[in-house]
Design brief:
Layout (H helix, E strand, L loop, with lengths): L3 H14 L10 H35 L9
Length: about 70
C-alpha cells in the first residue's frame, strides 16, 4: 500500500545500500552476494511496477463497468 514515491525512495535507499560496487574490494564472495541481493531488489521493484501498470490498464479498460475499487 505504499505510494509510488515511497516505493521509489525505498528502492533507491536499498539499491545504494546493497550496490555491488560498494563491496568490490572485499572479495569475490561478498561481491557475488551483493550482486544477488541487488538483483532481488531490482526484481521486486519491477514486479511492483508491473502490477501497478496492470491495475491502471484494467481500470482504464473497465472504468465504466467495474463496480468496485480495483486499487
Amino acid at each position: 500500500d505504499a505510494t509510488d514515491d515511497e516505493v521509489r525512495k525505498a528502492y533507491r535507499r536499498m539499491a545504494i545500500e546493497h550496490h555491488p560496487d560498494k563491496v568490490a574490494a572485499l572479495g569475490d564472495d561478498i561481491k557475488a552476494a551483493a550482486t544477488k541481493k541487488f538483483q532481488e531488489i531490482n526484481n521486486a521493484k519491477e514486479r511492483i511496477q508491473t502490477i501497478r501498470e496492470f491495475q491502471v490498464l484494467v481500470f482504464l479498460v473497465h472504468k465504466d463497468s467495474v463496480p468496485f475499487d480495483v486499487f
